[in-house]
Amino acid sequence: MTMVSPQKGSQQPSDRGAARPTAPRSRRVWGRPDLYTSYRQDMAMLNTRPKQLGVLAIVVVAAILPFVTSDDLLKILGTGLVLSIGAIGLNLLVGYAGQVSLGHAFFVGVGAYAASAIAGDPEGRYIGFGVDIVPVWILGGGIAAAVAGAIVAPIATRLRGLYLAIVTLGLVVIGGYIFTEWRDLSGGAQVGREAPQPVILGSDLTVDGAFTQEQKLYWLFLVVLVITAVLARNVARSRVGRALAAVRDRDVAAGVMGVELGRYKLIAFVLSSFFAGVCGSLLFVANGVFGPERFTLLLSVQFIAMVLIGGVATVSGSIMGAMLIALLPRISAELPSFLPFITSAANEHPNIFEVEIALYGALIVIFLLFEPRGLFGIWVRIRTYWKSFPFSY
Amino acid sequence: MTGFLTAVSGGLGQGAIYVLLALGFVIIYKSMKVVSFAQPAFMMAGAILVSYLTPRFGFAGAVIVGTISIGLVALAVERIAIRPMVGKAVFVIAIITIGVDIVVRVVAGAFVGTDPLLVGDPWGLDTVSIGDVQVQQRHIAALVAMIVVVVALMLFFRFSSMGLAMRAAALDQEAAMAQGVSVGAVFALSWALAGGLAALAGVFAAAGNPIDQTFWVVALAALPVIIVGGLDSLGGAVVAGLLVGVVESLVRAYHNDLFPNLATNTGPLAPYVLMMVVLLVRPHGLFGTKEVERV
User: Which one of B45, B103, B114, B124 has the lowest number of neighbouring Cβ atoms within 10 Å?
Assistant: First the structure.
């Protein structure tokens, strides 16, 4: 990528947005898609025409997918969309800021319970405030998780690397206990409580109408995902994102350059928890019921797997990874027809449930060994191959 | 007072199991600067393997064969999954060990079956009386085994040439290589030792109770132990292991007096809460080396 800045100094990037530079408008040179004539162009969210068109095409395809897909597959894809939100959040923390957290399941849980409590029936068996407006309980779940993140962050920002990973693992254990024990909120182990009702403009999305429940929920999830993905991408390319990358690459150097380490680690934690909370608020809407045993270490590891399999420090990679992980149960359910030694009976071995869990582990190991940049890295290779076709480099 | 001493004795027994696990974590950490999250899987695999071997070799023979076998499995894992990653970011290697943990655990879990699986230890839940206190034999056995292992490790690190090589590699990898230490052999041996220790811990953790699919969770409590003791301190692992074991056992015993409103026992939480408290005061654990950042 080349960057030409004809008037150096007058085009300093302005992150506050208040003082837009009055530099001459940048223009694209026809036939030279990689030539940027301004810093603004280089830092744009989608900085090439193929990216703009490609993303538009993907969003359009995703939006019309419910018309051509069966409902059971749509439900899995919808779960993938929701998991993508959480994966993007974890990627902000792990990928962009370099803070390894195994505690994502805890924040997802906080978001799920906060949203259920806000939307819950005030007359019901569990805590509920009866505000069933969708944006309210989604934001409520996100904010509750963000507050939890802000409470944890002072401990977490003192720690680095593996110490942090183990402490956040402890968070999942302690959180799991609280969720199980607080029966008024969670319904207790093996019982669970109802997920929030997705009601938009008076119509309940879980009731089949002109469109089925799966179709309507899928669109809801897609809209929320697009909003959060744009948000995350904007954070990543802003002052905050650059500060987080500096903290990740060398925290001492970042500190010397004037990046306040504590502040930016706090920001990373709060943002990541917020995304986790939004993910949690939507994660069980399709199922309707969820119990406290969902928020275990396995869920955290699944999110880690999404980030690593998808691609560290990429938003699109997070979505790809989450989709793959969401499809994994379906893939392993199809396996017995190809590999006869795998059974679908739970009391025989090796069964599909074991294969599914083992696949998480195997995929993490295989990707880290052979494609550390994840699915996104595979895409980059394909792109580079065709860009320079027929030359190999 | 009797109740208190019973709880302490049970805690020391549980703590001995934590010490065995934590020593494995610390040995790997000292050689590679990586926390291996695969230890729970090796512990579970060890206990299950021993329970399959006991009918053939007898308990003592099964423990020896099982410990060595899991050590070899750990060696193979290091060779296949970890060695190619040497030099990469530590958290990447740590995450790989999580992946390894999941795979090994699922494979081992497939052998649990529906019948209660027992390691075939001679102690069960029998007790001996020391004064007024009823002490479980399996706790005494775990404590004795732990002391034997710690002494053996101490002798190994102090007096054998391989032990010296491991200490040298832990202190400064490049300098050790320059002196002719095979750092690869050090990595391999540290993983084998850790695997064997985890398997041994698994045997004592499984004594008296059947093994089930959630057996590995016991080993997670060894993570707070290494944090409390300090990631790179073998002595810290011993002290913190016993400390965490005793604290957990006391909280478990006095749960109803401490928290009458909470139905679920808070014992399993105690290690994690203790870890958080210690970290607030000492971010590198009780005996860990303080990290010095050079700019």
Answer: B114
Q: Which residues of B touch A361 (CB under 8 A)?
A: 98-103, 106
Answer whether residue B226 is part of any domain.
Answer: no
A173 and B227 within 8 Å at the Cβ level: the answer is no
Rounded to whole angstroms, the Cα distance separating A72 from A330 reads: 10
Residues of A in contact with B272 (CB under 8 A): 170, 173-174
> For residue A365, which residues of chain B lie inside 8 Å, CB to CB?
81, 96, 99-100, 103
Distances in Å between the Cα of B243 and the Cα atoms of A157, B27, B135, B151, B229 are 26, 20, 18, 19, 9
Q: Per the domain annotation, does B67 fall within a domain?
A: yes
B92 contacts on A by Cβ (under 8 Å): 368, 372
Q: Give A216's contacts (C-beta < 8 A, 6+ positions apart).
A: A205, A209
| CA B153/CA B234 separation, integer angstroms | 10
Q: Which residues of B touch A368 (CB under 8 A)?
A: 85, 92, 95-96, 99
Among A252, A287, A311, the domain-final residue is A311
Give bridge partners of residue A199 from the DSSP assignment: A133, A204
pLDDT digits (tens, 9 = 90+) for B140-198: 999 999 999 999 999 999 999 999 999 999 988 899 999 999 999 999 999 999 999 99
Domain count, chain A: 2
What percentage of residues in chain A have a pLDDT greater than 70? 91
> What Å distances lie between residue A69 and A62, A321, A356, CA to CA?
11, 21, 24
Cβ-nearest to B103 among A161, A349, A362: A362
Domain region containing A124: 69-311
Beta bridge partners of A343: A351
Each residue of A180-192: b (16+ CB within 10 Å) or e? bbbbebbbbeeeb
Q: Which of B28, B37, B78, B98 best tests the A interface by mutation, with the highest count of A CBs <10 A? A: B98
Cα radius of gyration (chain B):
19
> What is the tally of structural domains in chain B?
1
**What value of ipTM does the predicted structure carry?**
0.88
Instruction: Measure CB to CB from residue A354 to each of B81, B96, B110 and give the nearest one.
Output: B110
- Would the pTM of this model clear 0.80, i.e. be above it? yes
State which residues form the domain around B175. Answer: 2-218
Q: Are residues A106 and A163 in the same domain?
A: yes
A304 lies within 8 A of chain B by CB:
yes
Kindly state whether residue A320 falls inside one of the protein's structural domains: no
Residues in chain B: 295
φ, ψ of residue B128 in degrees (nearest 5) = -120, 150
Residues A174 and A134 grouped into a single domain? yes
- Using one digit for the tens of pLDDT, what is the confidence trace for B104-127? 998 888 888 777 788 878 887 788
Q: Which residues contact A258 (CB under 8 A, 6 or more apart)?
A: none
CA closest to B82 among chain A residues: A369
* A117 and A215 assigned to the same domain: yes
